[in-house]
Write a structure and sequence with these properties.
Layout: E1 2-3, E2 6-7, H1 8-28, H2 40-47, H3 51-63, E3 67-70, E4 74-77, H4 82-94, H5 100-121, H6 124-142, H7 148-161, H8 165-184, H9 193-208, H10 212-230
Helix pairs in contact: 1-3, 1-4, 2-3, 5-7, 5-8, 5-9, 5-10, 6-7, 6-9, 7-8, 9-10
């Protein structure tokens, strides 16, 4: 896959090389938790890369909690200890881009949990948000348009209603790639609009009734075709 003249693989390789250099810099300078890293401009000149490259690598380490960027102040080493940091960076460097099957499996595992929690914890405001997302999905699906984004926004509304910020954050993290993959593999072609609407409506009604067992079963039924489909890709 290409992004302009630079492949995704090349971008990942550059990020990894910068992450290694940041790790080595932290170790060489014996930086302690809370210590400040040199500015992006300084690091880009030192490493011979662009500031954008450095920023991407820092954001990746920040995503995993190894660095902390504070506006107008700089980037600081997180309070986890050097040994743990080195071990985590080794794991990060070995991570591969999630494939479609992995994303589907992860999404299903997460959503069977979120829909159960949402049915128990949802507020009236959460229910309004889920209904609004459902209505937007209905309108788009019935018009024959691509409703992937509205579909996922419905599921994100459920994730928000589950009351677990970590699960909600994780769902937000994997959703952009899911949207890309759904378009790539034409996943929405496998369901007719009416079927999709009926399944989403069933999930909503179970959450509305605050019936966790029914909500989980409705979500499980909803994912049955998707789960089977992902193993044909």
């Amino acid at each position: 896959m290409k992004l302009g003249a630079i492949s995704v693989g090349d971008s990942q390789k550059t990020q990894n090389e910068i992450i290694v250099k940041i790790r080595d810099l932290i170790n060489y300078k014996n930086l302690e938790p809370g210590d400040k890293l040199p500015a992006e401009r300084t690091l880009s000149e030192k490493f011979g890369v662009t500031r954008s490259n450095v920023r991407d690598a820092i954001q990746r380490l920040e995503f995993y909690g190894l660095l902390k960027s504070i506006p107008q102040s700089g980037t600081f080493v997180a309070n986890i200890g050097v040994i743990a940091m080195n071990g985590m960076i080794e794991d990060i460097l070995r991570l591969e881009t999630p494939d479609f099957k992995s994303l589907v499996e992860t999404r299903i595992l997460l959503e069977l949990k979120t829909v159960r929690l949402a049915s128990l914890r949802r507020t009236d405001e959460d229910l309004k948000n889920i209904k609004a997302a459902l209505d937007a999905y209905k309108e788009k699906a019935l018009s024959g348009e691509d409703a992937v984004q509205e579909d996922l926004l419905f599921h994100l509304a459920i994730a928000k209603a589950c009351g677990n910020s970590t699960i909600n954050t994780f769902m937000l993290t994997i959703t952009p790639q899911i949207i890309i993959d759904f378009g790539k593999y034409h996943v929405c072609d496998i369901n007719q609009a009416v079927t999709g609407i009926e399944e989403h409506s069933g999930i909503y009604e179970a959450i509305k009734k605050q019936d966790p067992a029914l909500a989980k079963q409705k979500m499980k039924d909803h994912f049955k075709i998707l789960y089977q489909y992902c193993y044909k890709v």
